[in-house]
Design brief:
GO terms for molecular function: FMN binding; oxidoreductase activity, acting on the CH-NH group of donors, NAD or NADP as acceptor. Residues 10-155 form the Flavin reductase like domain. By secondary structure, this protein is mostly beta strands. It has four helices and twelve strands. The protein has helices at 55-63, 76-84, 92-96, 156-159, and strands at 14-15, 17-22, 28-33, 36-40, 45-50, 65-70, 100-102, 109-111, 116-127, 132-143, 162-165, 170-173. The strands form three sheets. A seven-stranded antiparallel β-sheet has the order 3-2-6-9-10-5-4.
Length: 192
């Protein structure tokens, strides 16, 4: 029997992404964000939602660009720190020892050590309430060669991305392989 938990942000999992931007002084900054996902296939777009008071908010609007760096489990503590400290007060890259890399395609930095990066041009914003949704067109995806599968795509088991559980505020990573999407359910449509 299911129990009502009320209207809460309990969808699971949420990604733990590091959103990169340059602030008004041109300093590389990044913040942790979990409210995001793919929102369009053509053009390829993702969305991330931020609060207006966040240091990154004005930077993304001003530069019309941002990056998404996907941290692996190896960098869990550093990624968490990006969500604890504010770029107004501290250089998070210097504090964590991570490297800001200037994108050649958009006006934003990404985290050099993280295995997967999406470079995005800001298409539009949507006011939702407490958060503003940034919709970015993906202009390029960069991945470390050792996290790619035999077809040249990122393999979740090799990337080992961090995922976030809202409300309980816990980090996890991906688990076991279950099956191929759009294949394992075919038996329900077949006639016996």
């Amino acid at each position: 029997m299911k129990i009502s938990l009320g209207a809460k942000t309990l969808a699971q999992p949420a990604p733990l992404w590091i959103v990169g931007s340059y602030d008004e002084d041109g300093r590389a900054n990044a913040m942790a964000a979990a409210w995001g996902g793919i929102c369009c296939s053509k053009p390829p777009c993702i969305t991330v939602s931020l609060r207006e008071e966040r240091h990154s908010y004005a930077s993304i609007l001003a530069r019309r660009a941002f990056t998404i760096s996907v941290p692996s489990i190896r960098f869990a503590a550093q990624a968490d720190y990006f969500g604890i400290a504010s770029g107004k007060d501290v250089d998070k890259f210097a504090a964590t020892g991570l490297t800001p890399v200037r994108s050649e395609l958009v006006d934003a930095p990404y985290v050099g050590e993280f295995p997967l990066v999406l470079e995005c041009a800001l298409l539009r914003t949507v006011e939702l309430g407490m958060h503003i949704q940034f919709i970015g067109e993906i202009v390029d995806v960069k991945a470390e060669e050792d996290v790619l599968d035999e077809k040249g795509y990122p393999d979740a088991a090799k990337v080992r991305p961090l995922i976030f559980t809202p409300v309980t505020r816990a980090y996890h990573t991906v688990g076991e392989y279950v099956g191929q999407a759009f294949e394992i359910g075919r038996s329900f449509g077949e006639k016996s």
